[in-house]
Amino acid sequence: MRVFLQGYLCIVTTTLILAVVFVDSYKREDSGTQLASMAPISIPLPAEEAEPVEVDCDTGEIMEVAEPVVEVASLEMTAPMELVESVPDSPVENPVEEEAPIGEEEITEVVEDEVEEKEEPKPDPAFELVLPTENREIFGDPSKFFMHTNRYIDGVNTKPWNGGNYGYVRNQLTTGIGVLYTRLHEGIDIRPLHRDSKGVPLDVVGAIAEGTVVYVNNSSSRSNYGKYIVVRHDWPDGPFYSLYAHMASSIVESGQELIAGQPIGKLGYTGAGIDRERAHVHLELAFMISENFATKFSPGNRHKNYNGLNLLGIDVARYFREYQLNPYLTMKEFLEGEEPYCKVKTSSRNKPGILERHPWLGRNMEFESEAKSWEFTFARTGVPLAISPCETEQKYATVSWVKNVNTNHSYMTAGRLLGSKDSAKLSTRGHSFIKLISEAY
Question: What is the topology classification, in CATH, of domain 129-336?
């Protein structure tokens, strides 16, 4: 019996040894890594090649084997083992925690969103606007840009530079609401930068924008403007006119096409009330009030439609400053910044020519066919801000609304209105102006 047990124990031991060798061999073949720079390891031989285990048949004890290959834990490595990831032949599934790649549809949506967010390039501005001389101080120190006026107040002679700006800047008057300037200056006076040894200005004057020369007056005595040039600019908001006055000379002729900045003459001091010290170019940017001025309103005037009375200047100084910030600024947008001062209903039922040339001035035009008169909204300067058809007939032009001010409206409107506070009527000068702009001949 003892011999039988010893023999059985030998068989079990041998079976365990073979099982360990088989498992170790299977793990090495199936592993995703390789052992690099590995020192020799003692591995038991397969069962058919392993040395026989000796058993003492007398005692039943297993005799000591020369090399302990049974205990896998007793394997020793003389060098560290480096694990090198093997590259699988087929894609390996991503771990759950990793973000799956974006699908084709998702990529398309992302691209579309990016396209929508991308800002479209703006087209070129409708026109280029430039200053007429090298003087750029309108954007810096205005006292070096505007030519001063000679002003006598209480026996004291002053030379304020703001007298060369646009608007009500002249004829100082003390009123119940403070000091007012009652004379309207419809342009800007730009001082020269260059003079010769005798003080004669040398500055060249150029066109402020692309346009066509429509009038050249080469006579110093036929106008308070002295020698002056008028250029027509056909802009998206309709035709506008730039006027250059007190010129020493001109180098252009009527009908000539110009580009922005192209020289048209030399700055001077021709015309009434201008001397060498105050030499400047007087610049206006204006509406033409009526294209019938020369034929119906003032047929005897020398300057035809280009008489200063027929050109209604806007605030060109403010326009230059705002254009520099936004070269896409339209005239409609610019004039929306002007404050309304009064409204006047005209006696003519005919559509005003200024509205034909500048349709954006129209309001409530769906009632045009029913118009029996027209109502104009004006700024203090007389610049039209809006024109609307009216269903009621007017025998005479009347003021339908006026801003409430605690002074004489005559001071505020260059003499076109009379009255005060919220009551006003047209003066003789005012009636003449309304007759011209509404073309009620």
Answer: Glucose Permease (Domain IIA) (2.70.70)
